[in-house]
Amino acid sequence: MIRALLSLAVLAVVAWAVTSVPLGSRTLWGHLSAIWSTPEAKEMQAGIKEAAEPAIEKVRRGAEAGLKAAKEPAPDAATLPHAEAMPDATQLWRAAQDAGERGRHGEAAALAERAFAADTSLAAAAMFAVVSYCKAEQKIGARRMAKELGATARKTAAVACSAKGIALDGR
Questions:
Q1: pTM for this entry
Q2: Fewest C-beta atoms under 10 Å: which of 24, 142, 157, 171?
Q3: How far apart are the C-alpha atoms of 62 and 57, rounded to whole Å?
Q4: Nearest residue to 95 via CA among 86, 108, 82
């Protein structure tokens, strides 16, 4: 609190000095105003405005589009293009997990791969497919699905597969 009051007091003193204390024929504010009104400074202002206009227009269009989208009602889930694929992908994913729990790793891998193909947002299905292919000792399937994984998930899958002697990088 004291620090804020001190900062405010210093700011007030600086503002007073800038506008009241003469530095030659003008105050500091007067000098800055005179500099800013020179033809060179006006040319610079026009150049900055000209360069910034496309960016400002782009931001304006984006804001307008965002406001327009916010005012529109959300689409009904049944009208979304992937609405029919979602239950199927989810069912495949659950079936893959069930097969994996029962030790049927080849079947689990194939089901998880189909679930990922139906809905690529199921990244866990791709990871599960790789690990299941490794458990079933199916190198080709494991390597094919490993290509779908991000770098971090690929490293995790590689550790799991190395226990079965399968290198995901093809070596």
A1: 0.39
A2: 171
A3: 9
A4: 108
